[in-house]
Amino acid sequence: MRNPAFFLHEVAAAELKDRLNIVNKCFTKTLVVSRFPEFWHSFREDAQVIPPTQTLPLEEAQLDLAIHAMSLHWADDPVGQLIQIRRALRPDGLFLGIFFGGRTLHELRSAFAQAESDLTGGLAPRVVPMGDIRDLGALLQRAGFALPVADIVPLTVTYADLLLLMRDLRAMGETNAMEARLRRFSRRDVFLKAAEIYSEANPSDDKRISATFELAVLTGWSPGPDQPQPLRPGSATSSLAEALGTDEFPLKD
User: Fold this and answer.
1) Nearest CA to 169 among 131, 213, 125, 208?
2) What pLDDT, in 10s, does the model give residues 72-128?
3) Could you give the residue ranges of the DSSP H alpha helices within the chain?
4) Which of 61, 92, 181, 207 is the most exposed place for a label (fewest CB within 10 A)?
5) pTM of the model
6) CB 146 within 8 Å of CB 220
7) Which pairs count as long-range contacts for 43-50, CB under 8 Å and 24+ apart, including other chains?
């Protein structure tokens, strides 16, 4: 039976399938790394699904497709995860990663920050930090992937109130697990104040509240001999102006 709390995983899976459909390559050995095997087992019939442990049980050059599904934002060492996967890919093997990006739940973060500041005079970490699009491509480069691409799929979801949003987050396994989190129950008035702030700052057209989710998608290839290579700087034989069919004028000092 379908778990309704996994609707974002369904969006992520559909996004990955669309991207794989435009890749002109046949994949014979697929790996999915995810905290949610019950969902991702159905992504590809031939896929092996393993949890994102710190040391992945992988052999060198055993895969031609590897997917890190909705878990990389929880990794203590995301670059380490990517390096292990890149080593497990055969030359010209494809990596796809999808996970929550930087502006995910920014409304929730702001509402709780203001509520706690107003009522307790302090702040407790509640939403795990997530990578900004400007930094995500660098993760692939540091891990040694070729032809790295990072992009964002923005989503807006509406809820009747803040408590239903938080119930969904718990059901999808996205609760607060940070080491510096508050180690006691939060005060009831903090939740009520946060709900009030959230509702006032982020209304939707139908008197519900809106929540932002970003799906960050990483695409990279294991280096291979037949891949296109960047030209040496200064080796161009024609100018951009010639390519665009326009005139080029030098700037004054």
Assistant:
1) 213
2) 988 889 999 999 999 999 999 999 999 999 899 999 889 988 888 888 766 666 666
3) 7-21, 37-40, 78-88, 106-119, 133-142, 162-171, 188-201, 240-244
4) 207
5) 0.82
6) yes
7) 43/13, 43/16, 43/17, 43/67, 43/69
